[in-house]
Amino acid sequence: MIFTVAIDGPAAAGKGTLSRAVAARFGFAHLDTGALYRAVGAKGGDPVAAARSLTAADLARDDLRSLAAGQAASRVAVIPEVRAALLEFQRRFARAEGGAVLDGRDIGTVICPEAEVKLYVTASPEVRAHRRWLELGGDEAEVLAQVRERDARDMGRAEAPLKPAADALVIDTSALSIDAAVAQAIAAVAARL
Ligand code: C5P
């Protein structure tokens, strides 16, 4: 069976949690596409060359989740040649036999416009910054400033900007429990299977 679930949205909206839950529930493979951009940013040097030569070891680095790695990712993610270098890998993953969940910023709009299910997961900047701060610590006001800066860069870029696909189901997790958000995502997939 070929079946793609596209999950897009801003940083710390809950995409990762929902993606893992949907993948586990239906036995689908899961690709966190943000990790590709984080790995390119963390590799340093020429980002286009880094994107073209990305290896499993680059993706396994344990410093990819930091705020700094997120900022570096969003800076290399504006470069069209970086996005082009990562496109084929994501499309193949999405259409591989057995079903796939991909989470990112442009999965429903650019990578898989034909995805069977498209979710746009969001929450207020304050709620998202609070979650990131609980996870990573530091100064909460600084975390909020970084969340806003990354939103602006991801939504404002010319190439594949972050926005909901026209046919995406929007899930706002600001006031939702994890269980309630997961239930909505699973129901959306079950309805299309
Ligand atoms: O989702 P995550 O926070 O790991 O993504 C890091 C950055 O990578 C995002 O802020 C965005 O700039 C970029 N990204 C992207 N397209 C994707 C996934 C991530 O541009 N599909």
UniProtKB/TrEMBL annotation:
The lineage of its organism: Bacteria, Pseudomonadati, Pseudomonadota, Alphaproteobacteria, Rhodobacterales. This is Cytidylate kinase. GO terms for molecular function: ATP binding; CMP kinase activity; dCMP kinase activity. One of its GO terms (cellular component) is cytoplasm. ATP binds at G9, P10, A11, A12, A13, G14, K15, G16, T17. Its EC number is 2.7.4.25. Residues 5-40, 61-189 form the Cytidylate kinase domain. The keyword Cytoplasm applies. Belongs to the cytidylate kinase family. Type 1 subfamily. It catalyses: dCMP + ATP = dCDP + ADP; CMP + ATP = CDP + ADP. One of its GO terms (biological process) is pyrimidine nucleotide metabolic process. It comes from the Bacteria.
